[in-house]
Amino acid sequence: MEKTEDWSGETNKYSSYVRVGVQMDEKKVISKEEMLHYAKLCRISLSEQEIERLLKDINEILGYFETIRQLQLNVEPMTYVTNVNETLREDEPIEALSEEEVFRNAWEKEDRWFVSGQVWS
Amino acid sequence: MELNSIVEQVVKPEEDISDPVEKVYRTIEKIEENRELNAFVTVDAEGALRKAEEIRRKITSGKRLGVLAGLIVAVKDNISTRGLRTTCSSKMLENYVPVYDATVIEKIRTQDAIVIGKTNMDEFAMGSSTETSFFGPTRNFFDHSRVAGGSSGGSAVAVACGAVDIALGSDTGGSIRNPAAFNSIVGLKPTYGRVSRYGLIAYASSLDQIGPMAKNTLLTALLLQVIAGRDLRDSTTFNKPVPNYVEEALGKVEGIRVGVIKEGFENIDERVSRKVYSALDTLQKIGCIVEEVSMPFMKYALPAYYIIAMAECSSNLARFDGIRYGGKPVKGKWEEQLIKIRTECFGEEVKRRIFLGTFVLSAGYKEDFYIKACRVRRKIYEEFKVLFKNYNVLATPTMPVLPWKIGELLSPLEVYMMDIETVAVNLAGLPAISIPAGFSDSLPVGLQLIGDHFDETTLLKISYAYEKETGFTKWF
């Protein structure tokens, strides 16, 4: 346990931990313009102040993800550990929610429809 | 032996279930006494009393009781409970009342458990300390100025403070084991597909798993016993028989081979590693064979986990449009509504993960980040499988540090790093348990044991033998 000295000081002990685990890449991987583009894709809007903070955090995180990006691996990607198809049930009708239940959490309904704002201009 | 008689003899020898109604009143008092800890989002006194009265009627009329009769359960607030608000500790679902029960809730209700309420968590289970909750952080039972761990922090503290007997949590990257370790209780993350996720509000579907938490091993085993099994409403559950976990937990541990993953002890707080090494000495003393092993790919588990979890979360959380449920009423065109609701109702950490997930899945970056992370996932899976040829279980500390002060970790990456010991397990879909390993500077330390797929029994066996040896349930 040679890293104990990182823990003795009162300040910054956790950030020193962050740095000892893996190599950090300090370079900026995403720009402000790119960030606004992705925010749009997520349907989330950001204030100027949020953009500044998020840009810093996200670049720190993406810098950390670089360790993965740089790996060269000759194995098939694994998205699930189980084989989903083996356990599918028979395609038979089963009891579903009542109409009243389906709409219970909606802010607004009209007959048998959920009400939302206009989709196409 | 039949489960009912095992339960009566072993699990609840001192438990008086003759008056469940009285017990509910005591529980409510206890929750009130510990209000400062902020373990609960919603307390359902009315529902709990109704169930208690039902059990009391069963007792007086001599009807057969379920195996959880008289036990009070706390449920993490991302598990759907019919008629009982389920918020995911998010403003997005602040007023959401599910119209159906999760499969695990149906199962525990059938066995006469009393659900007392819903517990606080990191928003949508995205966090490692219950600090991202819309309802404020949950406090550590042993030091109220420190974090409870997370994301199932409320469930862990509800157990630790003695308000409830058992609790349900969910674990995507350590969310059961982490708060269990930080509050000196037992928390088990079952094999992926062992317990139905139907009704669990998804964070990262290929990693999420519901699991039991309790002060001792046998209650943990009992709750697992009830919730495990195939569910036709969750196609990822396995059609495998459910062992009698309670009886199995009583088995012998002599000769069980424990591989200690040496990478799990590198660059961590020495106050933690010292305690965990001494817990491993105890395992040796009670008959386990303890040897050091290496897992070179473990260091890639954390970034791979976060890439995959964020990718899946960005897709799962796309459903929150505030129109069918959740959110708030907003006027305007559909897209404007959508942006306004998501911007105002998701917290900062949730937005950050949706954002990063969208990024790692986007054209031009998907191959570099998401697909690569999935390749790392296979490597980790294979490394585990090789180790399980020679070892029954693998061991690491549950957490790399002691519980930190609320608000102390400032950058998101610092918080992510706290999952370094736990995430590999979820990537490989393995079962793992955190058991109390003692205290350093008056703060709890957890030992993590990882089992091969569907081998929860060996984990429970070791946990029970270790509990008998150390008496960790008396540390409160």
Account of the protein in words:
The complex is a heterodimer of chains A (121) and B (476). By secondary structure, chain A is mostly helical. Chain A has helices spanning 5-8, 13-21, 32-41, 48-69, 99-103; strands at 109-110, 113-114. Chain A has a two-stranded antiparallel ribbon. In chain A, β1 and β2 form a beta hairpin. Residues 1-13 and 15-24 of chain A have low confidence and may be disordered. Chain B has 476 residues and is of the alpha/beta class. Chain B has one domain: Amidase signature (AS) domain (Amidase signature (AS) enzymes, Alpha-Beta Complex). Chain B is built from 16 helices and eleven strands. Chain B has an eleven-stranded mixed beta sheet, with helices on both faces. In chain B, α9 (270-285) links the parallel β7 and β8 (289-293). Chain B is globular and about 65 Å long. Chains A and B meet through α2, α3 and α4 of A and α9, α10, α11, α12 and α13 of B.
**Most extensive protein-chain contact, per-chain counts:** A-B, 59 and 88 residues
* Sheet having the most strands of chain A: 2 strands, antiparallel
Mean pLDDT of chain A: 78
Instruction: Tell me the number of helical segments of chain B per DSSP (H or I, 4 or more residues long).
Output: 16
CATH architecture of the domain at 24-73 in chain A: Orthogonal Bundle
The parts of chain A where pLDDT drops under 50 for at least 5 residues are 1-13, 15-24
| CATH domain class name of the domain at 24-73 in chain A | Mainly Alpha
Q: How does the major sheet of chain B shape up?
A: 11 strands, mixed
Distance linking N and C termini of chain A = 64 Å
Strand order of the largest sheet of chain B: 1-3-2-4-6-5-10-11-9-7-8
**CATH domain class of chain B:** Alpha Beta
How would you concisely characterize the structure shown here?
The complex is a heterodimer of chains A (121) and B (476). Chain A has 121 residues and is mainly α. Chain A has helices at residues 5-8, 13-21, 32-41, 48-69, 99-103, and strands spanning 109-110, 113-114.
